[in-house]
Specification:
six-stranded mixed sheet; single chain; globular; mainly beta; five-stranded mixed sheet
Length: 386
């Protein structure tokens, strides 16, 4: 059982609470990126150990370790069609993998420095990448060729993502800006620059009307790109926020931080509802499944953790009432407007339900599957196994 604790109440578990289902071990260094296959049968992870790994969610299934990158792998993404995996690396390349036993891959070489981010368009036809060469590049997947660059950032590009409809691209950089680009006209159409630090990660919400940024200054910000206004500002972590992921409903956001926690935010009420402890050390990656029923996280501890969401299967009012009763035994305060017109601060003082699977006797299924190396010459096998 997962142990849930809160300073105002005795530990107990509620059926709405997220639960840790499985953890996967196989990487030898920090997990930098994770994603689900759209069919929910596989996970993909990237690591500083230079490998891409694909984990089958069916119990006792083999895992596949894809060998090809020469340096740390920084980002991975399953195509929405599910038949390709893209990876980005510090070796300055992007690879397109066919996630099968053959391990075939195509290498894209145009960036002149480490590539930090890779993302498919929703129709699986294009890729967008961000690099330390200060550029964003767009590629044709079908033709397997470079299309164009976007070049207005003045420092490393940490992340670049397509909007759900593919018409826009959002990017963030160490130049402390978040930029919105028109993908057809190749123009920057907006810049958000009032930042205490740089953003490590950005993404669109499921409807494409907002973007969220994960800040090196411990904050998470959500902007409405129709009005160019800051909607919400959260300071609930005590360390840099490394990444984030929207629930498919758009109602919830999970953030991952150097403080070792995952935080689940209720965006409708603008409040922190859960704090998850599962990793030892910084949490570097997190992603919801396409259905939202599960999410996966990866950390500096080289572990991949699979969680069941649970609370998204219940009526929103039930989630709200459950949180209120467990964090606010006193009468609830007056609620402000949902989606406030003026941005307001949400701090770590807001109470949340703490979930720490490590406090209980571990009864989750640990998966240390047999690993098959893909795309590596036989003579190099001994080197990998060391």
């Amino acid at each position: 059982m997962e142990q849930v604790s809160h300073p105002r109440s005795a530990p107990y578990t509620h059926k709405l609470d997220p639960t840790l289902e499985r953890h996967f071990k196989g990487h030898k260094n920090a997990i930098t990126s994770v994603d689900f296959n759209p069919d929910l049968k596989q996970l993909v992870s990237a690591s500083l150990d230079t490998y891409v790994m694909i984990w089958n969610l069916k119990p006792q299934s083999r895992a596949y370790r894809f060998v090809g990158h020469k340096e740390a792998v920084t980002s991975v993404h399953f195509s929405p069609s599910g038949n390709l995996v893209a990876s980005a690396s510090q070796d300055r390349t992007v690879r397109l993998w066919i996630p099968s036993i053959k391990g075939e891959s195509t290498v894209f070489r145009t960036h002149t420095a480490s590539v930090r981010s890779v993302n498919f368009s929703s129709d699986s036809q294009k890729l967008v990448t961000g690099s330390d060469d200060k550029t964003i590049k767009v590629w044709s997947v079908h033709r397997q060729r470079f299309l164009f660059s976007l070049t207005q950032h003045t420092n490393w590009v940490r992340c670049a993502k397509f909007s759900p409809d593919g018409r826009l691209i959002v990017s963030c950089s160490d130049d402390r800006t978040v930029k919105i680009w028109d993908a057809a006209n190749k123009l920057c159409i907006n810049t958000f620059a009032d930042y205490g630090g740089f953003a490590n990660f950005v993404d669109f919400n499921p409807t494409g009307t907002c973007v969220a940024s994960a800040g090196s200054d411990n904050t998470t910000q959500i902007w409405d790109i129709r009005t160019n206004k800051l909607l919400q500002h959260y300071q609930v972590h005590s360390g840099a926020v490394n990444t984030l992921t929207f629930h498919p409903s758009g109602n919830y956001l999970i953030t991952a931080s150097n403080d070792g926690t995952l935080k689940i935010l209720d965006l409708l009420e603008g409040r922190l509802i859960y704090t998850l402890h599962g990793h030892e050390g910084p949490v570097l990656s997190v992603a919801f499944s396409r259905s939202g029923e599960h999410f996966v996280s990866g950390g500096n501890d080289a572990q991949v953790l699979l969680w069941k969401t649970n609370f998204d299967a219940f009526n929103y009012k039930d989630v709200l009432e459950n949180h209120r009763k467990r964090t606010n035994p006193d009468p609830p305060p007056h609620l402000t407007d949902i989606r406030p017109r003026s941005a307001h601060m949400h701090t770590a003082r807001n109470p949340s339900i703490e979930i720490n699977p490590r406090l209980a006797i571990a009864d989750t299924q640990t998966s240390d599957p047999s690993v098959i190396d893909i795309g590596v010459p036989l003579f190099a096998q001994a080197q990998i196994d060391k």
